[in-house]
Write a structure and sequence with these properties.
- The protein is mainly beta.
- It has no helices and 20 strands.
- It has strands at residues 4-9, 15-19, 23-28, 31-34, 46-52, 55-60, 64-71, 74-82, 89-91, 97-101, 104-109, 112-117, 129-134, 140-144, 149-152, 158-162, 174-181, 184-189, 192-199, 202-208.
- The strands form five sheets. It has a four-stranded antiparallel sheet, with no helix packed on it. A four-stranded antiparallel sheet has the order 5-6-7-8, with no helix packed on it.
- Strand 1 and strand 2 form a beta hairpin.
- The relative contact order is 0.09.
Length: 209
């Protein structure tokens, strides 16, 4: 495979690789397992993977988010939901699998999926999430392709949006969110890296040269 689209290491130190055009591999004590024989897991356009306890969830670009469950007999298909532009997933503080998609967020609740539409926060435009982070307070930091950074509370209510309209040096086109500590984050974008810091419930940004 020429392109790795996502990498995951689970609590058992197993390494999962998603490759563009060549589906999913699992490395367990130097043994590679290929999931070519599983429907959906053999798709060439898987861009995100989440391992949540015994569940394995993948996001297939412009098709589905699919959930499988590990058992003694291998992987068992559980459920799926049709979606567009799903590139990032996490396990949130409640132990739920959460993925981004073109309209907002998709949450796995007891083997069924729930969509959280966030278009109302961006003038009914595409949200198109590229990366998701949730902090210890339960707040979601959502890096979007065209809407800058959306910060939501644990109930998915908008706290603030950071974009060039309110911060001229910030970018609308973000790629990643990486925590530094409890009050600071690195934000990756098409303009480089920006540090986001919270002081007394106010967010400040500082470009990293």
């Amino acid at each position: 495979a020429e392109l790795i689209t996502d990498i995951l290491i689970d609590k058992s130190k197993n390494l999962f690789l998603i490759t563009f055009g060549d589906n999913i591999y699992k490395l367990d004590r130097e043994l590679f397992t290929n999931f070519q024989n599983y429907e959906y897991l053999n798709d060439s356009f898987i861009f995100s993977i989440v391992k949540n306890k015994n569940d394995l969830l993948v996001a297939i670009q412009d098709k589905y988010i699919v959930k499988y469950r590990f058992s003694k007999d291998g992987l068992k298909y559980v459920s799926k939901i049709a979606t567009l532009k799903s590139f990032s997933g996490i396990v949130n503080n409640k132990g739920q699998s959460v993925f981004g998609y073109i309209d907002g967020l998709i949450i796995d609740e007891n083997d069924s999926f729930k969509k959280i539409n966030l278009r109302k926060y961006v003038a009914n435009q595409d949200v198109n999430l590229k990366n998701i982070f949730q902090d210890k307070k339960g707040r979601y930091f959502l890096a979007t392709k065209e809407q800058g950074l959306l910060i939501l509370d644990s109930n998915f209510k908008l706290i603030t949006q950071i974009n060039p309209t309110n911060h001229k040096t910030f970018s609308n086109s973000l790629t990643s969110v990486l925590p530094i500590d409890d009050s600071r984050l690195y934000i990756g974008s098409n303009r480089g890296i920006t540090e986001l810091q919270e002081i007394n419930n106010t967010f400040y940004i500082k470009p990293i040269k």
